[in-house]
């Protein structure tokens, strides 16, 4: 419970004392310390936590309350106390500092307890051994300032009281950032840095080593609470997570200590930041050693970083590698000699120190009561001293302990500076020049009768150089600069510790240069060479992103691989970055690389193969054309209309060669040329076939009609002959009605209605329609080259965009229409037989054409990229080769291999095996018509 508010109210309560009034003392304090005020001009107060705690009073309320005593002698803080005495003694001997003034002192033991600190403060203000609030009793020397009172919570309690009277307080170890407030603590100053700087330094240390998962332990006082609060705010802003946050009890509590230990065991954090005094932390360290908990790295605040209270047996395994921040270190010449030159009978504190160190007692009666007198013949003096009695002649120098160790004078140095700060302020007050003073119109004050607030003015503005070190001290709104040494605990094989400086922190430097640390000089826990890793989750490497776990701190996450097309090129990326349209993620997903540009190139094996096949087809087609030109006057060529045949061959050359244009990197001109050339080439080819087929179909229909009439005439003649025979006329001659040469064809000239000119005109018109459609297509929405980035993720496919689906569908639908018409006509003319049947050849050619393009559709739709082009070229070549082979191979066979069949009589019709009738070809229809007329005439004559 904080008794400060009650004490403030008590101190502020006005006491009206008259001559007849009787002052009644409510309580008598039990204080121990040093006091020397006789014949002194000025007195400096001091307060040090020489003991660790107050003794238990037992809570008995049936008798007069007595102020609690103290227990747990602290060698380190006793050294601080003696350092103040040394500094005052040194100042009194100086001729350049307060030469005419002897300083006295009143020093109390706060027992590391707020109540004792308040007792000492009230007693100090009163000027007597009893506390009389609001009154200064006695006529002794004036009080200058209080040096103390140890921990931050003690100083806060005393500063609230001293601030009421504007009484200066200079602290040597109270670092709590709350004490910076001049509204609450107007007369508080300190020679040790503000904890805001230390919290920043700790945060920067954690961030420097990349620790993102740390635990915190703080003392249950203002020092621990404010220090950890500032630390948490800064590291959490930098993305560090707090695994756990525990508070050390101020009063011994085994249950709370065990709870903290269980938390430490369960946590995966390897870094523990501790803002606590050595006294509060010591019980936890003892239990940790008992449980053999190791493999942790401790970050120490200045309050315990060089404290020997932590150095218990086995501490090297637990605390080895500890990093911490310590205030400036200095050597103070003569201090060690002063510490060792101690009179055990001089005061109660020195007596207790002596008895503690040598495990004996200086009280003869006590020793006599507790031990038996030494018998004669035993190791005893002539006087027969009892066992356990100190002689007073023991040597402190032989004891290597914290008290006599002056190798790490840090808080001790701060005490030294605090005493000198008060002395320099008093010196400036004493040597004030009248008329140039700071009070009431440049007045000065007398050092023998000054008020505390007057000394406060000089303290706030003091600037001096510390003896022996040369450090310049001044107060910036009550604080000094934030400078720390970074200390590393290094143990040797014998378990002896060395506090090795591995860097420093200077709060006045620019942020980038505030911390300097030598990583190579640090010895980590268990002699590890590398800094320990303390993370809730391992870093997400480039190529992955952090996926936050629901309900857990942000430092606990899963590493999720970036999706295809996304990358992360930093560690612990929160989001993946989408690659540009022309880029794609590499295999590791940590960089965007250009997509593979794909098109069917001329130089690759597939492209070369297609070029060779296309060229071969074109050359073969040209060769066929040459054969036809050479044989242009022969019956076979004339019978097939040489112009249409050559036009058909030209269109096939165009289709063969246009397939080459599909190769290479698509350009706007190549896209237009390839599509239009293909459409026009097939339009001309199919128009020529249709023109040929329509004539053959018309002639076949005419021949079929003529055959029907012939059969009817023959049947009529037969009937007439039979009738005549039945009558018995001897003049009637019955002819053979199954004349094999009877074609049943009349000499009707309508068979040749469609001439060669009609065929050519039909082919030209059909091709012209396609040409007009293609021209409109090219003008309105022409095909053009595009980059297709959506078809395949890792590739950019250079291809041709049709420009308009409607136009390309119309254009090639027209080609399909021509192909269907040509196929129908050719199919209908397939029975127009002779030694050479062109109808059948065209029918087979169109069947191949349809089979190729029907197969092309699913193959084209199931491929991507350059293979789509390859499939299209294969379809073009296959259909072209099919037409060339089916239509022209039989003709070339006759023209080149069987030239003897290329005669007019070979074009004549041949007999029909089963019914004695014959069919004919277009090449012999004229001759057949004449023969049919003769047969009919003979039949009539016979009749």
TrEMBL record:
The chain crosses the membrane at residues 606-630, 642-664, 676-697, 761-780, 805-829, 841-861, 873-897. Gene3D superfamilies: 3.40.50.2300, GPCR, family 3, nine cysteines domain (2.10.50.30). Residues 606-911 form the G-protein coupled receptors family 3 profile domain. Residues 1-19 form the signal peptide. One of its GO terms (molecular function) is olfactory receptor activity. It is found in: Cell membrane. One of its GO terms (cellular component) is plasma membrane. Residues 916-927 have a biased composition (Low complexity). The keyword Membrane applies. Keywords: Cell membrane, G-protein coupled receptor, Glycoprotein, Membrane, Receptor, Signal, Transducer, Transmembrane, Transmembrane helix. Residues 905-927 are annotated as: Disordered. Belongs to the G-protein coupled receptor 3 family. PANTHER family: CALCIUM-SENSING RECEPTOR-RELATED, VOMERONASAL 2, RECEPTOR 2-RELATED. This is Vomeronasal 2, receptor 1. It comes from Takifugu rubripes (Japanese pufferfish). The lineage of its organism: Eukaryota, Metazoa, Chordata, Craniata, Vertebrata.
